[in-house]
Design goal:
This protein is of the alpha/beta class and 659 residues long. 54% of the residues lie in helices and 10% in strands. The chain is elongated. The relative contact order is 0.05.
Length: 659
């Protein structure tokens, strides 16, 4: 409830009395407050009525008025008066009034008029305009604007910019008071927190702060500790008042390295929901993840306290993944530590029946589809060892850790710039391209004559300012002053090249494919009239069991996998699979339907069962890599559905998959 004009005047009268060390006549105060002496006496009576025994306003004939009491008693009553009259009136000094306005703009999302502020703070509109000018000066050059119109004054900007600007403002208040003593600085920080944030928010951040700092990958400096503390206060309170981050339309997860902190962000979001009733959206959690990562807060655990069995399981997991991907992850100590930390808490959580939701699940399944499915197969042993059941969300968190490790193993791109002779021209092009592409590339320049005398088999991308006769790979031609249009062509080719070099992409050399190896005509069933997912799964199970390819547990495993998460894709295909332990022999089976049926959240007309037995597990990478070349393109799926002859279907698959 805002302080009304009378209460605001009484508060200001009390502040004036606190400043005086001797008696002052009533007209001294009435002149300053522009009211009658009768009003002053009425206000004195009001204040004396709510004062305790250790403070009072003494009225002395022919002398005037004096506030009696110790300095501490006067300050204590001031706080009591603040609580009685209004939450807005911490002080009437211009600096603290500006802080209050910033708090109301940024942390309460208020839209206020000068008339309203004038009544709240009992100051002139001209004084308030000066306050707003000071705030506007701080915002100059930043991406948050102060908007004033007939509706009032408010802030406008992207959520990330609003939070960043507010953090800088609070830090400017902290830095204005240079304190070397860490304890005193923390005390000042807490006083600032009390001024700006709701008590419930402060209490929550206090609960999680210590644990987060302990997860840092290195000892944090005092600045970093202050930074994460203030950042969290701002983040949580902005959510508390209903401010969310803008939804971004993106094809790829922007930086998978940030995702190492993602699980911590998800856990924090669950705590906010439980403690504060907040419901975080996908983009809110993504920002929190990047915030934690920026402060080096990642999954971690004291290795001395970890069950030795967990370490052994993780080592086996990394070894198997290395073998399957044909890339050595065994010496990646960071991967080992984050997996041990993650799986230790994951196992404990699942034993208690606690599940976590990953808002980025569908993005991870789409962007890292092959790796996601490989991780799922690898985790069969973990499920059996600990008697737990993982779902797609658990698999997606593990996929993130492996993807980070894999991306560190992607070889450098070798880029060659060809120029006729001129050194100046080659330097111009070199510098333009070097600054435009990531620093992890090897970029060299070469003359036209040297170009024809060198072995270029190891070169990934050729850029030339002169015509060259070279047919082994496309050449991008540029002018000496590389244009923006030419840079777009370079970036496009660079992105395609980088994706093609990813470990989980199939190699572009034609040979007998793994799909050919495990898919035969007898396992192709076209134009079946099934109407439910259950009918299809029962059909697969019966066919496989009759042929002796699976154990008695196969059907149950198939249904359990479906219960764990989505196996259908938006392209109209489902890819059910079961635990490798329930297969006696690897096989792939395809069923097309006469009509689409509901399979999870998608309607499908093509079902491809992938069955990889334990003895063939090392070939699973190529199986999924080939498969996803087909099923991620709706045109391919539609064509497969239209085929009526098994031989034609096998021929189409053979012609459109490479390993």
């Amino acid at each position: 409830m805002d302080m009304n004009k009378a209460d605001a005047r009484r508060f200001q009268l009390y502040k004036l009395l606190m400043e005086e060390l001797d008696y002052r006549p009533a007209n001294f105060f009435s002149n300053q407050l522009s009211v009658s002496t009768k009003t002053i006496y009425d206000d004195i009576a009001f204040l004396n009525n709510i004062m305790d025994e250790i403070t009072c306003i003494e009225k002395m004939p022919r002398k005037g008025l004096l506030l009696i009491g110790s300095a501490q008693a006067k300050e204590t009553f001031e706080k009591k008066l603040i609580e009685l009259l209004s939450p807005h009136h911490l002080s009437f000094s211009p600096e603290e009034r500006q802080r209050e306005i910033v708090k109301r703009l940024f942390l309460q999302n208020e839209q206020m008029t000068y008339e309203q502020l004038s009544e709240d703070y009992v100051v002139s509109v001209s004084s308030l305009r000066k306050d707003m000018e000071e705030i506007q000066t701080f915002l100059t050059g930043k991406d948050v604007k102060l908007i004033s119109d007939h509706f009032g004054t408010r802030i406008r900007g992207e959520e990330k910019d609003i939070q960043h600007v507010l953090k800088r403002y609070i830090f400017s208040l902290l830095d204005d008071t240079p304190i070397v003593d860490v304890v005193k600085r923390m005390s000042l920080l807490e006083r600032l927190a009390d001024q700006f944030f709701y008590p419930t928010i402060i209490q929550f951040v206090h609960q999680v702060y210590g644990n987060l700092v302990s997860k840092a990958g290195r000892p944090l400096s005092d600045y970093y500790k202050d930074s994460i503390y203030i950042s969290l206060l701002i983040y949580v309170q902005r959510l508390y008042i209903g401010s969310h981050f803008t939804k971004k339309k993106q094809v790829f997860i922007e930086n998978v390295t940030y995702m190492e902190s993602y699980l911590i962000a998800v856990e924090l979001s669950e705590m906010m929901h439980h403690s504060l009733g907040l419901v975080l959206e996908k983009q809110d959690i993504e920002y929190l993840s990047s915030l934690l990562f920026a402060h080096d807060i990642k999954p971690g655990l004291d290795m001395q306290q970890v069950n030795p069995e967990n370490k052994v399981i993780v080592k086996k997991l990394i070894s198997k993944m290395s073998h399957m991907l044909e890339v050595d992850l065994n010496h990646d100590s960071h991967l080992f530590h984050v997996l041990v930390a993650h799986m230790t808490t994951m196992i404990y959580r699942l034993k208690l029946g606690i599940t976590l939701t990953n808002p980025l699940l569908e993005s991870i399944k789409r962007q890292y589809s092959v790796l996601f499915n490989i991780v799922w197969y690898l985790m069969n042993d973990v499920e059996e060892t600990y008697d737990i059941q993982l779902n797609d969300h658990d698999i997606s968190f593990l996929t993130i850790h492996f993807q980070v490790a894999i991306e560190k193993k992607i070889p450098m791109n070798k880029i060659l710039i060809v120029c006729e002779k001129a050194l100046a021209t080659s330097e111009l092009i070199y510098n333009r391209i070097k600054h435009a592409l990531p620093a992890t590339n090897m970029i060299e320049t070469i003359s036209l004559s040297d170009f024809y005398q060198n072995n270029l088999d190891e070169v990934d991308l050729i850029i030339s300012s002169v015509p060259i006769a070279y047919e082994k790979q496309p050449v991008i031609y540029v002018s000496p002053l590389v244009t923006e249009s030419e840079m777009k062509s370079i970036r496009k080719q660079y992105d395609e090249m980088s994706l093609s070099k990813m470990i989980l992409k199939p190699r572009l050399t034609k040979s007998k494919t793994k799909l050919e190896k495990y898919l035969t005509k007898e396992f192709v069933f076209l134009n079946k009239a099934f109407t439910t997912k259950g009918q299809v799964l029962d059909f697969f199970s019966a066919e496989a069991y009759q042929r002796g390819l699976v154990t008695d547990e196969f059907k149950q495993s198939l249904y359990e996998r479906e219960a764990m998460g989505e196996t259908s894709l938006y392209t109209g295909v489902a890819i059910p699979h079961a635990s490798s332990h329930t297969l006696r022999q690897s096989f792939i089976s395809i069923v097309s339907l006469t009509h689409k049926i509901q399979w999870g959240s998608n309607k499908v007309q093509l079902i491809i069962f992938i069955g990889v037995a334990e003895k063939d597990i090392n070939e699973i990478k190529d199986v999924f890599a080939e498969l996803y070349q087909l099923v991620e393109k709706k045109a391919y799926v539609d064509h497969l559905v239209s085929i009526t002859d098994a031989s034609d279907l096998l021929m189409f698959i053979n012609e459109n998959t490479l390993i």
